[in-house]
Amino acid sequence: MKRIYRLLLLGLATGLTLMSCDRNDAFSVAGPSDEPFILDPTFPDRDKGELPTVATINRDANFTMTVTVTPSEYTTVVWYIDGEEVATGTSADIHLLAGKYELKIVATTVEGKSTSRQGFILVKPLEGDPIATTVALERIVSPDSDGVIYGSGMSGITGMRIGDTEVTSFSVEDDNVSYTVPAGISDGTYRVVFSDADGVEYGADKVTVTTASLVTSGVSRVSLNTSWVMSGINLDKVASLKLGETQITSFTVRTENSLEFPCPSVEPGVYTLAGTMSDGRDVQFYVNGSALVSTDVTVSAERTLWSGHHYVSWDLPDTDPGKKFDALQTDAKGWKVGETVKFHLSVNPSDAYHKVAFNSGWWTNLPGTVEEEFSEDKVFELVITQEQVDLIAEQDGFLICGHGFYVDLITIQ
C-alpha cells in the first residue's frame, strides 16, 4: 500500500511539472508572427463612447506607467499624448502641466501587427494655482481676434502662450484672462500655458484656432417673411449659403460675428442648410457640440409676431435693453385664449447657464409656467389660458426674462 501511495505522489508531481513546463513553453515560444497583446494594465471600457480616465495625478507628480506586452521580444511600444509621440519602451515617466490629456499606447510587432489602449490623464492643479475653466464656445477662436479664458486665481499671471506662440496682448480682470489671439497662428488645437513672475508654468487646457466660418446660433428654425439672423465667428468670409436647392448670396448684414438676410420664399418644411466661404471652404455649423458642414433647418409658415436676435440676461443693469425682452409687452394684451405662441430661443454659448421665464410686466411668472433651464436651442410653446390673459391685462403686459439666451423668433397660431 505504501508503495502504491508513493507511486501516486510521484505521478502527481510529474503531471504538475509537465503542466508547468507546457504553460511556460507556450508563453516563451510566442513568435514574431503572433498577434500583439497589452496584458497589463487593463483599461476601463468606454462610457457612452467617451474614453475612460486611466490616471489622475497632481501637477507636481509625473505620469508614470509600465505595460506588459506579448510577444515581448518582437514588440515595440510607443506612447502618444494628444497625438504626439512622447516615449518608447514598456515604461513612461512624463511631466505634464495641469489639464486633461489623451493617452494612447501602441504596441507593434516586427511584422507590423498592432494593438492599442486609450484613455485620459487628468492632471490636477495644486492649491493656490491658477485654475482655468471652460464655459462653452470661448475656446474656439480665430487669429487676430479677442478671446477670453475664465477661471480663478489668475491675478499672478504675467505670461501666456498658445502652443509655442507667445501672447503679447492680454489682461487679467475678475479672475478672467482677456487676450488677443496672435495674428500669425495657424489653424489647429493648442494647449494654453500661463506663467508667473517666478517662471512657474500652469496648464490651462486647450483652445482651437480656426480661420473657418463657424455659425454658432440662429440655424435651427426660421419663419417665412422674416429676417434670418445668425451669430458666429469669421462670418464676414461667408460667400453663400444654400437652403435646400435655394442659393443665398445677398446679405443685409455680414460682419465677423453676424449674418442677416431675408428668409427665402420656400415651402414650409425641413431643409438642409450648407454654405461656402470666399476661399471655397465649407461653412461650419456648431450643433449640439459638433462642427458640421450642413445642418437641418425647420422653415415655418406661422404668423410672425417678432424676429431678430435679442440677448437676454437678468445679470445686466436695469438700463440695459438686454435685461429683459419687452418688444411685445403691449401687443400681448391682444392674445386670445387658445392661441399658441411659440418662442424660438438660442443659447449664448459663452454663458455658464441658460434659463427662461415668461412673465407679466411686473415680472410675475405667467400661470402654468415656471423658470426653466435649457442647454441647447429650443422652441417653447405657450397655449394661452384665461388666467394668463387676465394677468397680462392686470400687470402691464408681457416680458421674457432669464439669462444666457437670444430671442430669435416669436410666432402665433
User: Tell me about the biggest sheet?
Assistant: 6 strands, mixed
Number of DSSP helical runs: 2
| Neighbour order of strands in the largest sheet | 24-25-21-19-27-28
Stretches where pLDDT is under 50 for at least 5 consecutive residues are: 1-28
Structural class: mainly beta
C-alpha geometry? elongated
Rg computed from alpha carbons, rounded to a whole number of angstroms: 30 Å
Overall mean pLDDT? 89
Count of distinct strands: 35
User: Strand portion, in percent?
Assistant: over 45%
- Indicate the percent of residues in helices: under 10%
Task: State the end-to-end distance.
Answer: 101 Å
Short description, anyone?
With 413 residues, this protein is mostly beta strands. It has helices spanning 2-28, 386-394; strands spanning 37-40, 53-58, 63-66, 68-70, 75-81, 84-88, 91-94, 99-109, 114-124, 131-133, 140-141, 146-152, 157-162, 165-166, 170-173, 176-180, 188-196, 201-209, 214-217, 221-223, 227-233, 238-243, 246-248, 253-254, 258-262, 269-277, 284-287, 290-292, 294-300, 303-313, 340-347, 355-360, 372-373, 378-383, 398-412. The longest helix has 27 residues, at 2-28.
Could you please describe the fold and organization of this structure?
It is a single chain. The chain is mostly beta strands. It is built from two helices and 35 strands. The protein has helices spanning 2-28, 386-394; strands spanning 37-40, 53-58, 63-66, 68-70, 75-81, 84-88, 91-94, 99-109, 114-124, 131-133, 140-141, 146-152, 157-162, 165-166, 170-173, 176-180, 188-196, 201-209, 214-217, 221-223, 227-233, 238-243, 246-248, 253-254, 258-262, 269-277, 284-287, 290-292, 294-300, 303-313, 340-347, 355-360, 372-373, 378-383, 398-412. The strands form eight sheets. Strands 24-25-21-19-27-28 form a six-stranded mixed sheet, with no helix packed on it. Strands 30, 31, 32, 33, 34 and 35 form a six-stranded antiparallel sheet that branches. Strands 2-9-8-5-6 form a five-stranded mixed sheet, with no helix packed on it. Strand 8 (99-109) and strand 9 form a beta hairpin. The longest helix is centred in the first third of the chain and has 27 residues, at 2-28. Mean pLDDT is 89; it is low at 1-28.
